[in-house]
Amino acid sequence: MHLTKPTHLIKSEASRLGFFHVGISKADFLEEEAPRLEQWLTKNMHGQMSYMERNFDKRLDPRLLVEGAKSVISLLINYFPDKEQLHSDAPKISRYAYGKDYHVVIKDKLKELVQFIRDHIGEVSGRAFTD
């Protein structure tokens, strides 16, 4: 009997869901990134995204978001709308705004992935974040 590694199962399902890149890393404190994030915030590089100032410690350590976290799954997806959705006479707005809110679309896919992991690998705790 051939047993597929959990990493391969996760990457394969993520691909089926439309994600074009998957990275799995150890959940740990982001020591190198901490001073960079602090400087970025201090320089007000986050503009009007005031939420970036909240939960500084949780942005640097995923274990504070999910107790017992061991891994972080990072995914990339191209959310470029179909050409049929773009109309030459439409107002000029960001292309991602033509379709359904990408936060909703991606969050639904992430929930599917978490359920797949639970169904095929075992019970896990996790949270899904977009952006």
Can you walk me through this structure?
With 131 residues, this protein is an alpha+beta fold. It folds into 2 domains: 1-24 and 72-131, no CATH class; 28-65, no CATH class. Helices cover 34% and strands 9% of the residues. It has 4 helices and 2 strands; from the N terminus they run H-E-H-H-E-H. The chain has helices at 6-16, 33-42, 56-60, 102-120, and strands at 21-26, 71-76. It has a two-stranded antiparallel sheet with strand order 1-2. The longest helix has 19 residues, at 102-120. The radius of gyration is 18 Å and the shape is flat. The mean pLDDT is 88.
End-to-end gap: 39 Å
Biggest sheet strand order reads: 1-2
The tally of domains stands at: 2
Annotation field: number of helices: 4
Topology order in helix (H) and strand (E) letters: HEHHEH
Largest sheet: 2 strands, antiparallel
Give the structural class. alpha+beta
Task: Provide the helix percentage.
Answer: 25-40%
Radius of gyration: 18 Å
Portion in beta strands? 5-15%
Overall 3D form: flat
Poorly predicted parts: none
Number of strands: 2
Nearest-integer average pLDDT: 88
Topology:
Elements: H1 6-16, E1 21-26, H2 33-42, H3 56-60, E2 71-76, H4 102-120
Antiparallel strand pairs: 1-2
Helix pairs in contact: 1-4
